[in-house]
Amino acid sequence: MNTKQIDLSERKNEILKTIVHAYINGAKPVGSKTVADKAGLGLSPATIRNAMADLEDIGLLFQPHSSAGRLPTERGLRYYVDFLLEKEDLSWGDQVAIEKGLMFRSADLAATLKRAVQLLASFSGHVAVLSAPRLTCDYLIHLEFLRIRPGVILVISVSDTGMVQNRLVQTDYDIQEETLEQISQYLSKRLVHMCLEELRSVIIEELKEERRVFSLLLEDLLDQMKGTAGQGEVFIDGRLNLLDKPEFSNVSRIRAILQTLEEKKALLTLLDKCLDSRGVQIFIGSEGLGNEMPGCGLVLAPYAGSSSGNPLGSLGVVGPIRMNYARVVSLVEYTAQVLGEKFKES
To answer: What are phi and psi of 69, to 5 degrees?
Structure first.
């Protein structure tokens, strides 16, 4: 939704902001008298009604029925987020609670990620989501190939975040243990804080130059590993929070949202897109997952860690389109920051 071409007066900006805030708090259409009482502009309800009609004409507000007040459209919320949103500073208590919540030491990466998503769901009052680090993003310190049976190889990888992953890779030909040991030794000499993608590029280039006997074999293995690394894991918490929101009382709507959360595929795709971003991204309604999550807003951000400085995964909040973005943005940013710092300490 392009909002860059919209040029509103200061008065209309204030009226739109007041309507959005009232909608966030009450989940109901907002009338001109409410705006007059809350905006503090010294304007009559009649003057405000005219301004609201103008905002409706350019697609920022709509009227559910003739006798109701106005609600912001998706475009109106996009304009609010782009130009009027002022982030809410987290209280000292919230910051300390998030830090303490992720302070515990655990060799189990999954336990840390589950704790992070639980905290985010609890503090936001919405659904929290988080994608686990991918092998393609992670920096490796150990990579080993073991023959399980003809045509099946176990690949063991260890990242500098402490994540251990075991993957079965299938080949169209059998590979003897001696050859796999050669490959493991060859890779161990080059694992100097490289992620899989970097490792793949460097090794394939070297093998082209040196024409090693197992060059095609190694390229095939790395290609398959890259493919299996794409099957990421998503942690979700706070589904029951959806039931507290009046806009999700519609059975078909809540079913669609819960199904998308359960299947995870579309959600993971969106989380992956955030890996290319260095900050928070906000998706409103159809901008996010469209009909798969009707009436939802998403606030997502990547989290980094370790010596790489590169994003490892993404986390965020899924809630009603009228969620309190000012607070949720700050929560997502801070949780991503603290989680990243925990990885750096690992």
So the answer is: -75, -165
Strands (E), the chain: 61-62, 71-72, 127-131, 139-149, 152-159, 164-170, 194-195, 234-237, 281-284, 296-304, 311-320
Residue 107 — very low, low, confident or very high, per pLDDT cuts 50/70/90? low
User: Helix or strand or coil: residue 221?
Assistant: helix
* 154, β-bridge pairs: 146, 168
Reduce the DSSP state of residue 131 to 3 states and report it: strand
Q: What integer pLDDT is reported at residue 229 of this predicted model?
A: 46
Mean pLDDT taken over the chain: 85
The rounded distance, in Å, linking the Cα atoms of 314 and 235 is 11
Task: Compute CA distances 237 → 15, 99, 269, 271, whole Å.
Answer: 35, 18, 18, 15
Q: How many CA atoms lie within 13 A of 84 on its CB side?
A: 23
Report the predicted TM-score, pTM, of the whole model to 2 decimal places: 0.78
Q: Cβ distance 73 to 59 under 8 Å? A: yes
Whether residue 161 contacts residue 311, with contact meaning beta carbons closer than 8 Å, is answered with no
What one-character DSSP code corresponds to residue 30? B
